[in-house]
Design brief:
about 180 residues; globular; 6 strands; alpha/beta
């Protein structure tokens, strides 16, 4: 191979590598289509119970709420309300019992919004969408900045939380037409 061909192949390989970062960090799992059109959605924050984050949990919660609000206000598919409380949903628990006090009948669907700090400064955010009547899982989307973002200089954990939230939101909205009845 000539030197110019080697350089061209190397350059294209590098471009492909960096352009695929978002693909590696983003996931979606479609389960079902809604029975009726979704026009009103509740966003429910699920608490991150990591004991190492207890001192800074409130700061992360505020940034997460702000990031969710900034993302969801841009879409025109449905009206939304961010619940004012963080819920603890134990593993292998019935969600309906854990969300006692949330008036689900007022909403066509609800989105469980999870956040988890990963190694270093990275975050993973995932959004699980459920239809309320009957209760059924529609889609789960997630985005991890550890696998899905390339940074020139390491950002702070708040910036990666915002990036992870935007990544999970973008995947959700790109697939909304597949789940909304």
């Amino acid at each position: 191979m000539t030197n110019s061909i080697k350089k061209t192949v190397f350059f294209i390989s590098i471009l492909l590598l960096f352009s695929q970062c978002g693909i590696f960090g983003s996931r979606k799992m479609l389960s079902a289509k809604a029975s009726t059109p979704i026009k009103k959605v509740a966003l429910i924050l699920v608490a991150d119970n990591d004991p190492f984050l207890q001192n800074s949990a409130e700061g992360y919660k505020v940034i997460f709420i702000k990031s969710l609000a900034e993302s969801f206000v841009t879409q025109k598919e449905f009206d939304f309300m961010i619940m004012d409380k963080e819920y603890v949903i134990p593993e292998n628990d019935d969600m309906e019992k854990s969300l006692i006090g949330v008036e689900m009948k007022d909403y066509d669907a609800y989105i469980l919004c999870y956040r988890k700090m990963q190694s270093g400064f990275n975050h993973k955010v995932w959004l699980e969408v459920y239809e309320t009547n009957p209760t059924k899982h529609l889609v789960t989307t997630s985005h991890s900045t550890r696998m899905g973002n390339s940074y020139f200089m390491p950002p702070g954990p708040y910036e990666t939380l915002i990036d992870a939230t935007k990544g999970a939101f973008d995947i959700l909205m790109n697939n909304w037409h597949k789940i909304s009845g």
